[in-house]
Amino acid sequence: MIIRPADRKADAVRIGALMALAFHDDPVVRWMLPSGEGTDRMFATLARHVHALGDLAFDGEEPVGAALWDPPGHRQSALDTVRSLPGFVAAMGRRVSYGQLLESTFRKARPSRPHWYLAQIGTDPAAQGRGAGSALLRARIERCDADGVAAYLESSKESNVPFYEKHGFQVTREILLPEDGPTVWAMLREPVS
Q1: Chain segment 112-132, per-residue pLDDT in tens
Q2: 174 vs 181: CA distance, rounded Å
Q3: Three-state DSSP class for 44?
Q4: Of 162, 154, 143, 149, which is closest to residue 183 (Cα–Cα)?
Q5: Angle subtended at Cα 40 by Cα 182 and Cα 17, rounded to the nearest 5 degrees
Q6: Domains and CATH numbers, the chain
Q7: Secondary structure letter of residue 97 according to DSSP
Q8: Do residues 49 and 87 touch, judged by C-beta distance below 8 A?
Q9: Angle of helix 96-109 relative to helix 78-92, nearest 10 degrees?
Q10: For residues 149 and 112, what is the distance between their CA atoms, to the nearest angstrom?
Q11: Which of 20, 102, 152, 157 lies at a C-alpha separation of 20 to 30 Å from 186?
Q12: How distant is the alpha carbon of residue 110 from its chain centre?
């Protein structure tokens, strides 16, 4: 498995398509977009305008997985916030408020100390079990360890919690999303020296 950094602009559509496949049955995505329509555009907008860094996993010539990360202290610029609005509105329509509600709820639960934030990670279902997710995680958590900084994520599926635990993450709390939303598991990984 080869991991390479993604280009936020050039790879955004590719990341959006991969994430739409990976998150096709995700409870949080279904809460925000019940029909699934617009999922690819929502993830492309996140890749292009919201998250600082992306990685792509390649098995041969085609990418089979992607991850979006924010380094410690990352804040979306005001310009990127404005630029993201058309993509989110086109993807989510009136349900764009669910995305804002999700971000507000998650922001309150995140650790106050510096940490790398894994916003999304996904593998094409046809490629699951080949190590793409693990390779994507290792690529960044090795950096976390080298820098002595924690990593944090919210798992939207309880069935994924053991995968993250295998990589050193531990559940710190459960988050119940408002508006009859699903439960999400906040997970933290302390750096290993």
Answers
A1: 999 999 999 999 999 988 999
A2: 12
A3: helix
A4: 154
A5: 115
A6: 2-189 (3.40.630.30)
A7: H
A8: yes
A9: 130
A10: 12
A11: 20
A12: 14
